[in-house]
Each structure stands twice: as structure tokens, then as C-alpha cells.
Amino acid sequence: MEINPGTTLLVVFALVCVLPLVIFGVIAFFVVRMSQQRLHALLSPDVGRLETQMADLRQRQPEASTERLLQQIIHQQAIRCGVIGAVTGLGGIYTLPIALPVDIVLSLRIQSALIDLIARQYHHDNSDRDLTIRNYLVMTGSSEITQASTSFLSRLLLRVVGKSFSKLIPIFGAVISFGVNYAIVQFMGRVALRWYATHDAQNNALTA
Fold this sequence. Notes:
Layout: H1 5-33, H2 36-43, H3 48-60, H4 66-88, H5 96-121, H6 128-140, H7 149-165, H8 172-207
Helix pairs in contact: 1-5, 1-7, 2-6, 3-4, 4-5, 4-8, 5-6, 5-8
């Protein structure tokens, strides 16, 4: 059976361009419709495991600062997220419709737990302001913390499209996806660490 090149190009276009936009549209719809608390409930896994890891690191490295220990946790979670990206990138364009949503959901939950851990280490609770910051960082991976909805959705679109392109080529896409996921978590974790550490220092200065 001869395959029509025009049909092949149409399928490729649908998978590469249309599918990420559809997924982005679904995510954007739920982000807009959800209240802050409902979004928090969706993205927040149990952070207890990370707190146990943090406690173990403190016991083994009693002289290390909180920032240094958190950097180790960030590295561990970046590798974990990278592995998810690699596994979901093995099939390339053929498994993209299933692999991309799985990668996005699992990655968001890992990153969400990481941000929660960092916030707790610097004595921040789950206030509405902290939830807004956490959700924005997790959903966009941005270095700028803002509540502007246009910026939020445009950054989210870029992230979804970027993840889809990283998975296009079978096998090789796994390597790229690992790097993309690892870099996102490293960058996001360091932004969150810097933000919470700075605000904790400012609060301590005001109460001193």
C-alpha cells in the first residue's frame, strides 16, 4: 500500500503543531477555571518523602547549610524528572500523544513537591501568596514571579511546545528530553531557592 506524502505531512503537522496546542488549551482551560486551592490540590503530592530525605542529609552533613542541602535535593529531583523525560521520549513522534501528557503531569508533581519543600525549609506556609508563587514557578518554569495571566499562559505554551519538540525523534528524543527536564528542574529549583532564601533573610532582618 503506497503512502501518500501529503497525508504523512498532514499527520506530522498534526502531531507536532496541533497536538501541543490542544494540550496547552486543555491545561489553560483548567488553570483559568480552577480556584487557587483546587490548583494546589491537583499539583501537590505528598512532600513528606522529600522532608525525610532532607532530614537524612542533615544527619549525615550536620555542618552543611540549608541552601547546600536543598541544592542536593534539587539535583536529585532534576535527575528523577530527567529520567521521566527520557522514558517518555523513547518512542519519538509515534508515542507523543500519550508520552507528552504523562511527562507533563509527572514532572509538574515532582516540581511542585520540590517547591513545597523549599518553602517549608524557609518557614513559609501554604498561604495564598505562596501557593500563587509555587504554582506559577511549576507551571511556567519562569525566572520572573508575576501573576499576569497573559505572561503565565504564553510561558506555559512555550513550555508545552518545547517538551513536544524534544520528543520527536525516537531514542535520540530520550536524550534531549532528559536534558530538557533536568535543566527545567535545576533552573526552577534554584530560582525558588533564591527567592525564599532572600525573603527569609529580609524577614529575619526586620524582626531582629
